[in-house]
Amino acid sequence: MSATTLAGEVYPYPPVRRQTTLISDHFFTRKRRIQGVFEGERLLFLRRWLPIFFMHVDAKTLRDFWPTLITNYWSEFPEFAGGHLSPQEVDVRVVTIKQTEGRLKAWFNHERMKRARANA
């Protein structure tokens, strides 16, 4: 491997860049994306669903949990107003919905790992 020079020092490996994602005109690192996107009322909503999530984890029925959670999340926090949309706006909404649903799953799985570490 070639060495990289930073501030006059030679490192055996190139510097690692953390992956960032654009979320609502703000950049978040991957770690921040899991833990810090949900704040205020959204965080309280997720915490209210934790006991139900753990019940489904223990019963191994998460496939039943996700659709219910996601439906309730969007009914509680509707992101978009109705109306005529351009194709670009539709694309943005689809991407936003998929990203948010992924973040919901990541948040709950992070909480599951925290519980597993605490019980170990």
Record the SSE blueprint:
Blueprint: E1 4-6, E2 9-11, E3 20-23, E4 26-29, H1 30-36, H2 41-59, H3 62-76, H4 87-119
Antiparallel strand pairs: 1-2, 3-4
Helix pairs in contact: 2-3, 2-4
Tell me what you see in this structure.
- The chain is mostly helical.
- The chain has one domain (24-119).
- Helix content is 62%, strand content 12%.
- The strands form two sheets. Strands 1-2 form a two-stranded antiparallel ribbon.
- Strand 3 (20-23) and strand 4 (26-29) form a beta hairpin.
- Helix 2 (41-59) packs antiparallel against helix 3 and helix 2 crosses helix 4.
- The protein is elongated and about 50 Å long.
- Residues 20-30 have low confidence and may be disordered.
Number of helices: 4
| Shape category | elongated
SSE order: EEEEHHHH
Helix percent reads 55-70%
Low-confidence stretches are 20-30
What is the total domain count? Answer: 1
Provide the gyration radius in Å: 19 Å
Mean pLDDT: 78
Q: How is the main sheet built?
A: 2 strands, antiparallel
Instruction: Give the strand content.
Output: 5-15%
Overall SS class = mainly alpha
Number of strands: 4
Question: Quick summary of this structure?
Answer:
The protein has 120 residues and is mainly alpha-helical.
Which terms summarize this structure?
single chain, 120 residues, mainly alpha, two-stranded antiparallel ribbon, two-stranded antiparallel sheet, 4 helices, 4 strands, elongated
